[in-house]
């Protein structure tokens, strides 16, 4: 009956966009602003939300697929979250089954963690596989990943927009400058493109990359080349410098 009503346009549909790179906190804030959604989660902690979804004890970060979701007045926020969670599980399963060989992941969840790092490091589609390649080679060589977004995530509300040397030395489960391997959980919503990149890293020898300031990166094979790129692009920052482009809405249709 509901489908028939939609076909006759007798029901008004609304939409909400969940954006690649968002944290679970940002996702919850966006849902809370949807006046036509029945709000059932606003008084719950993240742990309580996951329990209500049937995932007790599961860390929420990264488990919801970024896309534009449609809903009608009276739909509950938890029902929309269930859709996003189910979609993320489907995408991750599909991509995992089609993955490249000889990857340093023991399970799909580790690929999801990697995808979240890729999502935060670049919004340039052509670079995702290259970023993945650098991180995968570092994992194989037992090199530290040394990626700033993980440190920023670990700082939480204490991050003020300026990452300091002291921050990089601060012990945290998410500090990839101190801890080997992947962080314990994803750090953001990861879309299909980032998940695909994590499971199909580009071949090559690069072990380093640095942001140019226009959203793209310079990739280097040696520390000497990398330090040269750092001097050129990081130590002489323009006023409009940014490490990655503004979020691009490159979403999969429901």
Number of strands: 4
Identify low-pLDDT runs: 238-254
Mind describing the biggest β-sheet? 2 strands, antiparallel
Shape: globular
pLDDT averaged over residues: 88
Strand content: 5-15%
Q: State the order of secondary-structure elements, H for helix, E for strand.
A: HEHHEHHHHHHEEH
Query: Strand sequence of the main sheet, in spatial order?
Result: 1-2
First and last CA, distance: 20 Å
Assembly state: single chain
Helix and strand composition category: mainly alpha
Q: Give the proportion of residues in helices.
A: 40-55%
Number of contiguous helices: 10
Q: C-alpha Rg, in Å?
A: 20 Å
Layout of helices and strands, plus pairs?
Elements: H1 2-7, E1 13-17, H2 24-32, H3 46-52, E2 68-72, H4 77-97, H5 108-121, H6 128-140, H7 148-155, H8 165-169, H9 192-199, E3 208-211, E4 217-220, H10 223-233
Antiparallel strand pairs: 1-2, 3-4
Helix pairs in contact: 4-9, 5-6, 5-9, 6-9
